[in-house]
């Protein structure tokens, strides 16, 4: 059953998609390091042998290749290229340099803006339109059954932690109230410094006679 479910999941996507999302692009080509065109921003869908530079494409003339671009240090691909090979329905598109693109992998957003209504179902990044995912990677994760199970487990654990926090908070409040009631009926003990001051005020000083007080002088 597990093997069959895994096979069905893999059939949902072309065999080159997951290897593509794992690759690191815009690195220097090891074969053409001396060339000014050695940046690896191409990918062969037939070979899936890793990022390629423009010079490497001469060995993949009859193969299907796509070009990866960059936006804010994240990998993107033009919609006009990827939609020939992949259904990108539900993935948010962006316009960069007058061309529509989609991001390859998720870009978690630390804070959501005010008034955000729609977010990515996987990384919760705010989406402009009524899309479900912010990237191709999020679509793969979001549609898989294992992700749905993880999300339910995470939601349940979060609910349990909130319940335990509420319970502990309530117990803490009750204990605090009991302490306040107990203290209201128990006279407070004055600080030691105040006691010492009172004792010092009560004590009388040792009397001293004035000099020559008992001396009688005759002329």
Summarize the structure.
By secondary structure, the protein is an alpha+beta fold.
Give structural notes.
Pfam families: PLATZ (PF04640). It comes from Brassica carinata. This is PLATZ transcription factor family protein. InterPro entries: PLATZ. The longest helix is centred in the C-terminal third of the chain and has 41 residues, at 145-185. The strands form two sheets. Strands 4-5-7-6 form a four-stranded antiparallel beta sheet. Strands 2-1-3 form a three-stranded antiparallel beta sheet, with no helix packed on it. The protein contains six helices and seven strands, in the order ααβββββαββααα. Helix content is 37%, strand content 11%. Residues 152-156, 180-192 and 215-219 have low confidence and may be disordered. The protein is an alpha+beta fold and 219 residues long.
Helix-strand category? alpha+beta
Low-confidence stretches: 152-156, 180-192, 215-219
Give the rounded overall mean pLDDT. 75
Compute the separation of the termini in Å. 135 Å
Shape verdict: globular
**Rg from C-alpha positions?**
38 Å
Count of alpha and pi helical runs: 6
Strand order of the largest sheet: 4-5-7-6
Number of strand segments: 7
- Major beta sheet summary: 4 strands, antiparallel
Report the portion of residues in β strands. Answer: 5-15%
The percentage helix is 25-40%
Write down the secondary-structure element order: HHEEEEEHEEHHH
InterPro entries: PLATZ
Organism: Brassica carinata (Ethiopian mustard)
Protein name: PLATZ transcription factor family protein
């Amino acid at each position: 059953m597990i093997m069959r479910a895994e096979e069905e999941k893999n059939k949902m996507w072309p065999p080159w998609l997951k290897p593509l999302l794992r690759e690191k692009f815009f690195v220097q080509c090891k074969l053409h390091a001396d060339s000014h065109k050695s940046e690896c921003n191409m990918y062969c869908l037939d070979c899936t042998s890793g990022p390629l530079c423009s010079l490497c494409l001469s060995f993949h003339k009859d193969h299907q290749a796509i070009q990866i671009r960059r936006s804010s240090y994240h990998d993107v691909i033009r919609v006009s290229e990827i939609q020939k090979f992949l259904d990108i329905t539900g993935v948010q598109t962006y316009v960069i340099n007058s061309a529509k693109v989609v991001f390859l992998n998720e870009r978690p957003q630390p804070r959501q803006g005010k008034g955000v209504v729609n977010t990515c179902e996987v990384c919760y990044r705010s989406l402009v339109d009524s899309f479900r995912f912010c990237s191709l990677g999020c679509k793969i994760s979001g549609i898989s059954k294992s992700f749905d199970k993880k999300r339910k487990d995470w939601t349940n654990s979060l609910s349990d932690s909130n319940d335990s926090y509420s319970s502990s908070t309530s117990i803490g409040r009750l204990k605090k109230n009991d302490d306040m009631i107990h203290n209201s009926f128990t006279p407070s003990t004055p600080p030691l410094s105040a006691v010492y001051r009172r004792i010092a005020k009560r004590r009388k000083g040792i009397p001293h006679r004035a000099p020559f007080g008992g001396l009688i002088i005759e002329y």
